[in-house]
Amino acid sequence: MNRRASRNIGSEAYPSDDKPASIFQHYVGITLDRTQYEFATSRVISSGQDNGERKDFSAQSAKPRPHTSETIQLFCGDAANPSSWPKELQQAVSIAFSQEKSQYSSHAPEPERYVLALDSAYHFQPSRRPIFKYTHSVLHAHFLAFDIFLAPASSSRLRSFVNNFALRVLTPSLSAPFSNFVPPSAYKTQLRDAGYAEEDIAIEDITDDVFPGLARFLERRDQQLAALGLSGFLKWRISGWLFRWLSAGDILRAGIVVAKWKEKGLK
């Protein structure tokens, strides 16, 4: 699993004949996993070649190429700690924002900015708070995420103790700090502390649409490998059991987070 924060800036695309409008103008992607970074980079290159153009994904230049609709930049780094970002990444973010300001008149509304943490924020160490604060106070961006939350406490003290113990045992395998697993109410408090207004924060529970399907996928993959006579893939079976257990929803819940940035003084 990886730590990843992605930024999707703007909604208007550069004019292009016979091509659909781009959904973004600038995209900055960050992952802590070197393998994922290299795979994503190869996909961007391949996509540009398939479309007859080469998208700019390098860390060295953040300027969009003529006649292309977007700038894509990928970095291998720790999205959880903006203060640790290398100079190239900080420069990419700075240039993207300065370009936005130059492209719009003072009377036009600013393009929307997003930070997307897709199945990653619960890995952030030591916590999500630095990226929440940076997203709101520096980027002036909406925060979007798929994240995992602590389920409501059981009415049984014994069951609560067992669930808490099980989660402490589980978190090392998830490469996630135990303190990152909080109920939605505490999650919203962290977003409010970062500057987002209560009325601009929404969390939708999608546990039933995530854990059961993931458990079935992992179990099916284990069966396929066994049918091929392959061994040594016990992790697939264990992962299937794990998510089948989590699908009951007694320990962890899965949800979609939307925190909208709003300029102070606006309602």
Automatic annotation (TrEMBL):
Residues 44-66 are annotated as: Disordered. This is Uncharacterized protein. It comes from Emydomyces testavorans.
